[in-house]
Amino acid sequence: MSVNEELREHAEHAHDDFSRKAGAGMAIIAALLAVVAVYGHLMTTEELLAQQKASDQWAFFQAKSLRRYQSEVARDILKATPGDRAVAEAAKYESNLTRYEKEGEEIKDKAQELSKESALSGRRALRLHIGEIFLEMAIVFSSLAILTRKHLFWYSGITSAALGSVISATSFLILH
What we know:
The chain is an all-alpha fold. It has one domain. The chain contains three helices and no strands. The longest helix is centred in the first third of the chain and has 78 residues, at 3-80. It is rod-shaped and about 120 Å long. It starts with a helix and ends in a 6-residue tail after the last helix. The model has no long low-confidence stretch (mean pLDDT 91). It holds the Pfam family DUF4337.
């Protein structure tokens, strides 16, 4: 075997070694991508669920506000009506009014809390989705590295994977 053939064979083995490393790296990146994608979808689902619950609470708040308003009107009408029975009925509506105001405030607080929870999940989901984009780009760069055997694509893939991982990880640091 000539020296030239030996060098060529050695170079081919070196490229095969590079392809194996790039392929293994791509598999790791794909696993990270799967985890980030699942968490991203989970956070999006959490956002939508909290948003729906908040919407339900606001509708309930509106219903309580309407009942409070109706009690106010009934109380005012009964106060204007002469007689002991009207005064007793007006007192009942007055007690309902206080209860509706208290319940309305509790419902409003819960709705606002759910809205904050939805916004937090949305911010986390956004970070995870951005991280997912970088991890997908890393898969593309890794594929190009294997096809072209160019180390620049491999380094670009590693950089993109690192960025995607860091951006995704920071989603768990968002506390409010």
